[in-house]
Amino acid sequence: MRPSPYWKRYAVFSVGFVLLTTVVSFYTRIWVLTGAPVGFLFGFFLEKADLCGASAFSEVVLSKDWDKLTGIWIVIVVSMLGFGLLSGLGLIKLNPKPLIWANMALGGVVFGVGMVLAGGCVSGSLFKTGQGNLNSMAALVGIPLGVSAVEYGPLKGFNTALKQYVVKSSEGGRVTLSSLTSLPYGVLAVGFAVLTMALVLITARRKKEALTRKSEDLREPVLQRILTRPWRPWQAGIAIGVLACFAYLSSAASGRNYPLGVTHGVMQAELLVTDHPLKFVYTPKPSPAREAGAVHSTGQTSPYKKVSWWLVLEVTALVLGSFISARLSGKARLLPKPPDETVVAFFGGVLVGVGAAIAGGCVVGNIMSGYALMSVGNLLFGAVVLLANWATTHFYLMGGRIVVGQRE
Q1: This prediction's pTM
Q2: Given CB 3.0 to 4.6 Å as the disulfide criterion, which of 155, 201, 231, 399 pairs with 48?
Q3: Is residue 213 situated within a structural domain?
Q4: Rounded CA separation 95/374 (Å)
Q5: To 10 degrees, what angle do helices 67-88 and 53-62 make?
């Protein structure tokens, strides 16, 4: 793709959007507004490296390419180091997810199959929508339907029943790598970082990365190259890992003590136009209205469905950030797709939503953020998703054939 000749305009808009929303948030002390610049940058970084969880997993089988999967791992390791520092400074409280093994296992299978059919995970469908991918748009319609079916629809009782199969640590808390090893979170984070650096150095010796660029690239200013050219997955991984630390601070100040996540943001954005009454969360202070599902003194269940404004702003701005990134690179365009692919993508999106809701998250919330928080439940989810994705890729995309080399 040829970079946009108007790249300076898009660059000015991007900087202006991030700075304006951040300054307004600091000036008004309405910290939930920082969800917008976080989402914008998240979408920008994802699009720059085409860092979709579905393709990251599938490309290992399709073309023996581990670059995107490595990029996701870089996100995790950088996030670990940042979370450890923020926690040590007392700025955040680590909040790993519980080991609800039945939810993680079943949700992982459904999610892993669905992401191949949909052509993307939740974040992948969001940023590819910004690029103009029609199939991702169809999947993005199906995802909130799947999430809602689990959260509020016919699968709610089944999902609740699965949650009774929970494993706790010996101290009664959540099972993490720290609780299993009795090692502090920070020590483990540094250990993973050192191990990752060692593996990177070993790999670099075996496979030297080409350093030469096309002559026209060399004539471009550095800023133009950064904004208009594709990034390598590891570069986006570092950027997203750093962003995740700011996201944790931003999210915690907005009533949601967790770093990056997108699944429930997609569903809650749909709730804004389809349901009422709603309970809006935008501050860590308790609201007079009770949480959705909370029991009142009368024994009645609250009718309110929770909507986190931070998540809604994040996922909305994510699409915008991806669109601007794609415009900078000249990739933003609406391309026709075969109707059968679009239909499959829609139903794949429904499966992605169902699987993510059962497991309580997707590649972003359960793998990027969940692995960084060292939740053993999320480790299980990631392993199951990987295997389900590989199996579906092998039989659905490859027809059961073994392909050596590049994707056909």
Answers
A1: 0.90
A2: 231
A3: yes
A4: 10
A5: 140
Q: Are 36 and 321 in contact (CB under 8 A)?
A: no
Dihedral of alpha carbons 172, 175, 179, 184, sign: negative
Handedness of CA 15, 21, 27, 29 (dihedral sign): negative
HSE at residue 29, side-chain half, CA atoms within 13 A, is 1
The single residue listed with the structure tokens 């392993």 is 383
Count the domains in the chain.
1
Mean pLDDT, range 333-359, rounded to an integer: 94
The predicted-structure confidence for 209-260, as pLDDT tens digits, reads as follows 544 444 445 567 888 888 889 999 999 999 999 999 999 999 999 999 999 9
* Element spanning 281, H or E: strand 278-281
Domain assignment present for 406: no
Q: Cα separation of 160 and 162, whole Å?
A: 5
- Pairwise CA distance, residues 151 & 359, whole Å: 11
Within-domain flag for 52: yes
Domain extent, residue 50, equals 7-397
Amino acid 167 reads V
The DSSP letter of residue 367 is I
pLDDT tens, position by position, 170-213: 889 999 999 999 999 999 999 999 999 998 888 776 665 544 44
